[in-house]
Amino acid sequence: MAVCLCAVTSRTSSNPFQGEKCKYAGQSVRALPIRILSVGKKRSPGVQLMVDEYVQKLKYYCSVEDVQIRSNPRNARDMRAQVDDEDKAVMNLVRSDDWVVMLDERGQDIGSEQMAELVADAGHTGASRLSFCIGGPYGHGRKLRERANLSIKLSSLVLNHQIALLVLMEQLYRSWTILRGQNYHH
User: pTM value?
Assistant: First the structure.
């Protein structure tokens, strides 16, 4: 069941995530370990270098695990079979006590302050880990869509999984600097 983490509402927008500052900025928040599950082909060395850099930056705030899941693990020729195989591989890595955020082009549009709230709010859910899921070339499967607690989009543009991963990593780092009141986000 999808549940909205943030209760922030804007008087001028129908989107509850737009137009407000982070309600936790500068406050103490429970840091859940973060796991990023990314379906795709082997990453380019440049992308991996940047991912590793952000993992190091994020370790100051919370533990981060970057998990790569091979796209089309059984070399299915049918698109639906490929999505189902990837869905099964992702679901095998999701625990029952994870707070699962699915990155999806049809997900809720959020800003950086609201991403920070998502990270902070996840610590109040009773979950033991915050898991972000980036789908393969044909998106997410039915089981993950049903399991996800929240679906967000990083952009109105459709992003390649490697670009989506970099944007997510930077936004997680930005979220923590917002939550800690540090000079990074302006």
Answer: 0.85
- CA-wise closest residue to 143 among 91, 96, 97: 91
H helices then E strands: how many in the chain? 5, 5
Interatomic CA distance for residues 85 and 90, integer angstroms? 9
**CB 98, CB 126: distance < 8 Å:** no
Contacts of 62 (CB under 8 A, 6+ apart): 31, 32, 33, 34, 176
Contacts of residue 89, defined as CB under 8 A and 6 or more positions apart, other chains included, come to: 39, 69, 70, 73
Measuring CA to CA, how many Å separate 153 from each of 58, 104, 118, 146, 164? 21, 5, 13, 17, 9
Q: pLDDT tens digits for 37-55? A: 999 989 999 999 999 999 9
Cβ(57)–Cβ(151) below 8 Å = no
Report pLDDT for 33: 97
Q: What angle is formed at CA 22 by the lines to CA 124 and CA 63, rounded to 5 degrees?
A: 50
Say how far apart CA 115 and CA 168 lie, in whole Å: 10
Place of tokens 């079979």: 81
